[in-house]
Every structure is written in structure tokens, then in C-alpha cells.
């Protein structure tokens, strides 16, 4: 099937180089299939790369209590108005009042003066709330459906 490379002597450098010959079927891949093969390869790499252990800095979904604690930590030195909204998000998440959490998250986002860590904490909270809302909707909770629609509107704006 494949041929082993044959050594080639280079008279000027006094060392042996290997010349590679490829199997003709491999080299005859139509260029039109390259994007498909590339996307399959990239998808495979991403799927395998995403199957590792959960690291501290990952953007994975935290449970509401963890997300609320992260908000408390990152907003402890924020300006009074932003801190008040972040505290409202945190309390609403701890109590499971997700519609109130969504409204407060929207207010925090609108403040516009977030640090990188605060922005990440808000993003993780949105993911956490969304995950909880989806679980509640699957159980038939109509209030969760309303809060989820509100969250989707917030994400569009």
C-alpha cells in the first residue's frame, strides 16, 4: 500500500535525506472536498478537546449558589448602584426567583462599567439561570417559561 521512503545521499552535505512518496489515492483528493474534510477534522478536535476535566477557569455552568457567590465576590468593590443590582441578582438566584434574577442581570449589564471579572461573573450567572430555567420548563413550570423568554429578549439586546 504505502512505500517506505528511500534514502537519498546528498554529496555536498554528507548526510542522508529521506524522500517521501505518497500513495496516489491520498493525493487525488478533490479540492472541493477540502472544506468538508477540514470541518470534520476541526469538529473532531473540538469534541475530543472538550472532553477533559473541568478546570477552574472554565466557562462551564455553575449552579445558582456558586454563581451567586461569584457575583458577591466580584462586585464587592463595585459602585453602589451596580453592587445593589448584583446583590439583587445574587439573592434572587439563591431563592430561586429567576424572573427577578433576569431583570437584575439586565440592570447589571446596562451599567456598562464592568470589569473583565465582573463581566465573566455576569455571563456565568446568565448561563446558570438559563440552565435552571430550562430544567424548570421541562418540568412544566409556566413561570420559568416567562422568565426564559425575558432572558432571551435580554440576550438579543
Regions with pLDDT < 50 over 5+ consecutive residues? 52-59
Q: What is Rg?
A: 27 Å
Average the pLDDT over all residues and give the rounded result: 76
Order of helices and strands: EEHHHHHHH
By secondary-structure content and strand pairing, the structural class works out as mainly alpha
Query: Counting H and I runs of at least 4 residues, what is the number of helices?
Result: 7
Main-sheet strand order equals 1-2
Tell me about the biggest sheet?
2 strands, antiparallel
What's the helical proportion of residues? 55-70%
Number of domains: 2
Beta-strand percentage range: 5-15%
First-residue to last-residue Cα separation:
58 Å
Q: Tell me the total number of β-strands.
A: 2
Shape designation: globular
Quick recap of the structure?
This protein is mainly alpha-helical and 157 residues long.
Which secondary structure elements does this structure contain, and how are they paired or packed?
Elements: E1 6-10, E2 15-19, H1 24-27, H2 34-49, H3 64-74, H4 80-95, H5 98-110, H6 116-138, H7 142-156
Helix pairs in contact: 3-4, 3-6, 4-5, 5-6, 5-7, 6-7
Question: Tags for this entry?
Answer:
157 residues, two-stranded antiparallel ribbon, mainly alpha, 2 domains, 62% helix, 7 helices, single chain
Overview of this structure, please?
With 157 residues, this protein is mainly alpha-helical. The chain folds into 2 domains: 6-46, no CATH class; 64-156, no CATH class. It has helices at 24-27, 34-49, 64-74, 80-95, 98-110, 116-138, 142-156, and strands spanning 6-10, 15-19. A hairpin with a 4-residue loop joins strand 1 and strand 2. The longest helix is centred in the last third of the chain and has 23 residues, at 116-138. It starts with 5 loop residues before the first strand and ends with a helix.
Amino acid at each position: 500500500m504505502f512505500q517506505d521512503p528511500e534514502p537519498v545521499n546528498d554529496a555536498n552535505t554528507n548526510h542522508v535525506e529521506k524522500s517521501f512518496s505518497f500513495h496516489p489515492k491520498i493525493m487525488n483528493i478533490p479540492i472541493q472536498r477540502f472544506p468538508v474534510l477540514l470541518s470534520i477534522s476541526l469538529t473532531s478536535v473540538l469534541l475530543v478537546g472538550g472532553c477533559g476535566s473541568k478546570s477552574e477557569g472554565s466557562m462551564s455552568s455553575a449552579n445558582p449558589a456558586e454563581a451567586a457567590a461569584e457575583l458577591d465576590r466580584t462586585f464587592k468593590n463595585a459602585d453602589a448602584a451596580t453592587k445593589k443590582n448584583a446583590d439583587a441578582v445574587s439573592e434572587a438566584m439563591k431563592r430561586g426567583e429567576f424572573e427577578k434574577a433576569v431583570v437584575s442581570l439586565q440592570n447589571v449589564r446596562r451599567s456598562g462599567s464592568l470589569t473583565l471579572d465582573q463581566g465573566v461573573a455576569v455571563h456565568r450567572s446568565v448561563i446558570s439561570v438559563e440552565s435552571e430555567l430550562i430544567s424548570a420548563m421541562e418540568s412544566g413550570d409556566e413561570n420559568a417559561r416567562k422568565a426564559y423568554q425575558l432572558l432571551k429578549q435580554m440576550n438579543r439586546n
